[in-house]
TrEMBL record:
The lineage of its organism: Bacteria, Bacillati, Chloroflexota, Anaerolineae, Anaerolineales. It holds the Pfam family G3P_acyltransf. It catalyses: an acyl phosphate + sn-glycerol 3-phosphate = a 1-acyl-sn-glycero-3-phosphate + phosphate. This is Glycerol-3-phosphate acyltransferase. HAMAP family: PlsY (MF_01043). It is a multi-pass membrane protein. SMART domains: G3P_acyltransf. Belongs to the PlsY family. Pathway: Lipid metabolism; phospholipid metabolism. Its EC number is 2.3.1.275. Coiled coil: none annotated. NCBIfam families: DegV (TIGR00762). The gene is plsY.
Length: 493
């Protein structure tokens, strides 16, 4: 009995080793939980990082389920203990003690356990599972409903231990119970509950209804990761970058490495342009009756013409659709956090007026802080008066700036970049509460530094959500390469 308990504890600790988190950090120097759908599993690694690292994750996760079975049998423990060792590993994968209990779904770990428990039966059943999975366009539920009865029947024919026979049901139940705390809150917020069927059964495609939720728009200055913007349902209207006399859309098509290298090594000073009213007009009209209203969130009106362009577009649509425009008072990822707030409220069924009021209240809870690596670009843009004395004095310093509630503040300066970043982190630790916040660490061509900042903030502030993003070339044109910083949403709950 004692041996079984020790192996159960070992199985949980082994399952808690998140290969998705570790391999993504090695491969891409970021946290997989800040990419894609936020799940620390094989599928998200494949979509967000690549097939090769996903293959390593899958193999390691499968091994986490198989190793406990082999250990239990090597110690001549009963088969029931072996089955529950796989359960412990799957629970560890879902709620890893080493990673703040935020893990994956445990499907590969459960598969590894089944292969170790009943290798012949499981390998016979796998092609059936795969066939149904692909035939139903990725429905793991239907594939399980078809394949698991076959697996149970094959186990029964071999006259195995009863718990081994029913191990597929035990593991499926474990996976479902572990997933519920994550899925239920999101499902309850869905306005059209048929979206649950689409998620569980991808082949199911209900006739689309006219949405009663407002559509949320913002511009590319928000610098949101593509996966995050798509997941939240935020529509991005691109700014324009004027480079060598050519207007380039700030839509992700610009080679950022080459662009920032040019900023570092040449005397290039690009300019930028806000979207024309027609850009906002076309994007909203493309909704084609799919939304009851539209809300456009822009950077401060005194920093860019986005607000005026959006307002003109709203006026042109006044007789067909209610469109509201909000000056966020912040820019960059802080503006993106306001768009996330609006999009989440829209999905919960909030009215346009309620969303507007919530965004207005959030101005006190959302802001950003950053460290400039150079003053030349912001001097050339002429947009920030807060550091004008530094520019005039021709000092080689690294200013720490905040943007919140529509105001830019100089929080201090240092002679070295390292000390300026330390000052920024100290400011965040002093002014933000630990826990309950959403943070976006941003950078302009310095992902390594952004990842280090993110890791520090994970430990000190314990945010509920943390993302890493690269500033778009439009912001790079004004702030220059080497910019690093953090946007926060303090009362995200």
């Amino acid at each position: 009995m004692m041996q079984c308990m020790l192996v159960l504890i070992f199985s949980y600790l082994l399952g808690s080793i998140s290969s998705a988190v570790l391999i993504t950090r090695l491969w891409k120097k970021t946290d997989i939980r800040s990419l894609g759908d936020g799940n620390a599993g094989t599928a998200n690694v494949a979509r967000s990082v690549g097939i090769v690292p996903a293959a390593f994750v899958a193999l390691l996760d499968i091994a986490k389920g198989g190793i406990p079975v082999m250990i239990a049998r090597a110690l001549f423990l009963n088969e029931g203990c072996a089955v529950f060792c796989v359960v412990a590993a799957a629970v560890g994968h879902n709620y890893p003690i080493y990673f703040r209990f935020k893990g994956g779904r445990g499907l590969a770990t459960s598969l590894g356990g089944l292969v170790a428990l009943t290798p012949a039966s499981t390998l016979i059943t796998l092609p059936v599972y795969g066939l149904v999975y692909f035939a139903t366009l990725g429905s793991g539920i239907l594939a399980t409903l078809v394949a698991f009865p076959l697996l149970i029947y094959l186990n029964y024919l071999r006259e195995l231990h009863p718990l081994v026979i029913w191990s597929p049901v035990i593991l499926a139940f474990t996976t479902a119970v572990c997933a519920m705390p994550r899925l239920l809150p999101r499902w309850l917020k869905l306005r059209d509950k048929r979206e649950i069927l689409v998620e569980l059964f991808p082949a199911y495609s209900p006739r689309p209804l006219r949405s009663t939720a407002p559509a949320i728009f913002t511009d590319s200055i928000a610098s949101l990761p593509d996966e995050l913007a798509k997941r939240e349902g935020i529509h991005i209207v691109p700014m324009s970058l004027i480079l060598d006399g050519q207007a380039l859309p700030d839509d992700g098509s610009i080679d950022r490495r080459a662009y920032y290298q040019a900023l570092r090594t040449t005397n290039t000073h690009p300019t930028t342009a806000a979207p024309a009213p027609g850009e906002f007009l076309n994007r909203i009209q493309a909704m084609d009756g799919k939304a009851s209203a539209a809300l456009i969130l822009t950077p401060p009106a005194d920093l860019t013409q986005c607000y005026n362009s959006a307002r003109l577009a709203a006026e042109q649509l006044a007789d067909r659709l209610k469109v509201e425009v909000i000056d966020c008072g912040v820019a960059g990822p802080a503006q993106g956090l306001m768009a996330i707030l609006a999009a989440r409220l829209a999905r919960q069924g909030a009215s346009l007026d309620k969303i507007k009021n919530a965004v207005a209240e959030a101005r006190q809870q959302i802001g950003m802080i950053g460290v400039l690596d150079t003053l030349s670009f912001i001097e050339h843009s002429g947009r920030v008066s807060a550091i004008r004395p530094l520019v005039n004095a021709a000092l080689r310093v690294y200013p720490v700036l905040t943007l919140r509630e529509g105001q830019i503040h100089l929080e201090g300066m240092e002679r070295t970049r390292r000390k300026a970043i330390e000052r920024m982190l100290n400011w965040l630790e002093k002014n933000l509460q630990s826990g309950g916040s959403v943070l976006i660490c941003f950078h302009a061509d310095d992902s390594g530094c952004a990842e280090q900042i993110a890791q520090t903030l994970r430990e000190k502030l314990r945010p509920t959500e943390l993302y890493i993003t690269e500033m778009t070339p439009v912001i790079g044109a004004h702030a220059g390469p080497g910019l690093v910083g953090v946007a926060w949403w303090q009362a995200a709950s």
